[in-house]
């Protein structure tokens, strides 16, 4: 399943994405707010990619390779919806990470809004959440623009301070969508 948005092109991840995944997730700049730090090597990226591909096969949804519509062959980031387990909960997690050259263009917001719509309209999820570090204000702003709201702190990385859990239910999303449609 490939999707084209206003500016973005999405396709499910494939094994050949390993090198680009490592470039983006292995970059210290893209891990500024990640207490686990950058991916240590290409082997780690391949293991993560194998988990992502397996998630697609088991659940029918997962992470996409994200590129611009005009240059679908150049992956700028990865993101999607996945079932994630933390110490005390399981969530339908919205996650994304873009290469530094893609920052500051509103691509994360466009992607997040699409992923949420896809999650509620096509996958029929009851709730979508995201986990973000307390000091990552830019990502918090993206999540808020996409309609998620802060719920509580969550322990997501062992031996690290808690992160913030943002959530949106399908009912909340439907109510917001109805208000937007009626305002037009």
What is the CATH fold-level name? Aminopeptidase
**Rg calculated over all Cα atoms:** 16 Å
Share of helix among residues? 25-40%
Strands of the widest sheet, in order across it, are: 1-2-3-4-5
**Percentage of residues in DSSP E strands:** 25-35%
Poorly predicted tracts of residues: none
> What is the CATH level 1 assignment?
Alpha Beta
Q: How many runs of DSSP E, i.e. beta strands?
A: 8
What structural class do the secondary elements suggest?
Answer: alpha+beta
N-to-C SSE string, H for helix and E for strand: EEHHEEEHEHEEH
Separation, N- and C-terminal Cα atoms: 31 Å
Number of domains: 1
Sheet bearing the most strands, described?
A: 5 strands, antiparallel
Counting DSSP H or I runs of 4 or more residues, the number of helices is 5
CATH architecture: 3-Layer(aba) Sandwich
Name the CATH homologous superfamily: Gcn5-related N-acetyltransferase (GNAT)
**Mean pLDDT, rounded to whole units?**
92
